[in-house]
Amino acid sequence: MSEILSSLRSLMASHSPPLDALVVPSEDYHQSEYVSARDKRREFVSGFTGSAGLALITKNEARLWTDGRYFLQAIQQLSDEWTLMRMGEDPLVEVWMSDNLSEGANIGVDPWCVSVDTANRWGKAFAKKSQNLIPTTTDLVDEVWKSRPPAEMNTLIVHPLEFAGRSVSDKLTDLRAKLKQESARGLVIAALDEVAWLYNIRGTDVAYCPVVHAFAIVTTDSAFLYVDKKKVSSEVSEYFKGLGVEVEEYTDVISDVALLASKQLFSSFSSKIEDMEIDSDQTDRLWVDPASCCYALYSKLDADKVLLQPSPLSLPKALKNPVELEGLKKAHANKKKPTSETSKLTEVTVSDKLESLRAAKEHFRGLSFPTISSVGSNAAIIHYSPEPEACAEMDPDKIYLCDSGAQYLDGTTDITRTVHFGKPSAHEKDCYTAVLKGHVALGNARFPKGTNGYTLDILARAPLWKFGLDYRHGTGHGVGSYLFVHEGPHQVSFRPSARNVPLQATMTVTDEPGYYEDGNFGIRLENVLVVNDAETEFNFGDKGYLQFEHITWAPYQVKLIDLKQLTREEIDWLNTYHLKCKDILAPFLNQAEMEWLKKATEPFLDILSHLFSFFVIHHSLHRFNSLFLSNNPIANINVVREADALDGCSVWVSVGLIEKT
Predict the structure, then answer these.
(1) b/e for 511-546, b at 16 or more Cβ within 10 A?
(2) Per-residue pLDDT tens for 11-36?
(3) pLDDT score of 549 more than 90
(4) Alpha-carbon distance 340 to 240, whole Å?
(5) What predicted TM-score, i.e. pTM, was given to this entire model?
(6) Residue limits of the Creatinase N-terminal domain (predicted)?
(7) Mind giving me the DSSP string for 116-179?
(8) % of residues, the chain, pLDDT over 70
């Protein structure tokens, strides 16, 4: 790492003008959360592998900013040459640079890897000391990175209409109507999932994300795709010709954006597209999403003639059509299972086993993110990623957290469950129960239309706050339809950006509160929800109301629940949910698996009744007298029964769990 920093500082000194600092973002040319191996520049210079963060290298310091999901991971991965800056606790990177770098300092960044929003925000912060944001002509990290992986050369794939649910022509028609509505003559599209959604294409250029590296430009009478043409087969080329979409080389986008600005960009297919009548004052504005468009492209436009606002594709992509909704529900159902077994149970082998189960399902295309398979203290690392050489073995005395998902042609999945294979402590049960109560509260919420995720976030946190506990990540994100597992523009979060977009019917969103105790354990529960219209007795303000529909089906581990802390309403909901789990999953299970599922989903009150009968039968064996029983309700008894009871099952009386030994 020292050699990398030394080499970068030499390039900074020889740069024209010389640089006092170099910013290395996590993002690629499309401002993506997940990037390809060759775009992991921040990881290369810092050694930190988390998906979010920013590195700053000065003449004598190296600092890394990241959010609360990665504090523990960054501490473990950063060398002594680096200082961790905790987002939300330490100064923002632009504030730190403005306060700590000298008057007139030059701060370099690759303009392809920084968004318009970020560049403009930094520029304002630097103004008070006349500091300068310098777009570098080449990426200095690439010059130092001698072993940088080659560019991905994977064939572009057409996403069938039977899974997409809407034709490209319909989407283009709607998009052009929005351009007219905003008096804009064109849109520059940089976000990879928006390009993929608009043109009904997919790819494998980024691990876990079915997208292809591409830009797009759409005007009132033309449409362009910018992609490495080596990725476009003759069949795909014909597909685009049929759509009237001009396919250009990926690297031509910057020159074409300049042509677009000067009204010199034309398509050979323009005549095939019905012209729209537009007023003369519409011909100068170009629409750019400041969050996803890089500064390099924006700099080719006349800033006075740019409409800077969120992409008109973001919300339509988030609002799932009926075909997408049905596909998402199918993707969350089990279908087939291989029979191979694993000898040694570790975080990695269990994760691999889970992947093999998914891989046997229809339409499987890969995982939707690296599986978070974590035992004990590793579960406290929110986005922990196990390595075969150093991973932990499964431990019956420790909590196990598994956050996983997959990509299918008909949908994208994301689910988290936390379990304990031994006897959890009272503290672990308290924490799990608080997380569960928040999870249930959010999932059962009804709320007026126009409500945003910032408002709803408190529902998931309130049970934890009661104990003085909390978590450092958002509570929910949208989920794509065979696209990114993290999808906007909506979210459920404490972050102010969650106020920007209200939840709407047909959106998907996750419900995933958690609690993480450094050095001990982590707990998270996650279901995917669909936002639906709600029928209510009244309709105050004639707003209309919304509610959530769960489409994830996996039992919660009853052993970890302190039943005494649940309300009757919460118990009823859990019983109903578990009954649905049993009904939905039963057709895909063999007899042994079905026996496990029956016990895992047995209604709470039935279990307590069963246990009461059990203790009456064994009254003399355990020397319970009538006085003892009358003074000690069954829900408060904490006894472990030997494995010979109840058909070879262990019984944890305190939580009513029946578990196979």
Answers:
(1) bbbbbbbeebbbbbbbbbbbbeebeeeeeeeeeebb
(2) 999 999 999 999 999 999 999 999 99
(3) yes
(4) 43
(5) 0.87
(6) 6-138
(7) HHHHHHHHHHHGGGT-EEEE-SS-HHHHH-TTPPPPP----EE--HHHH-S-HHHHHHHHHHHH
(8) 88
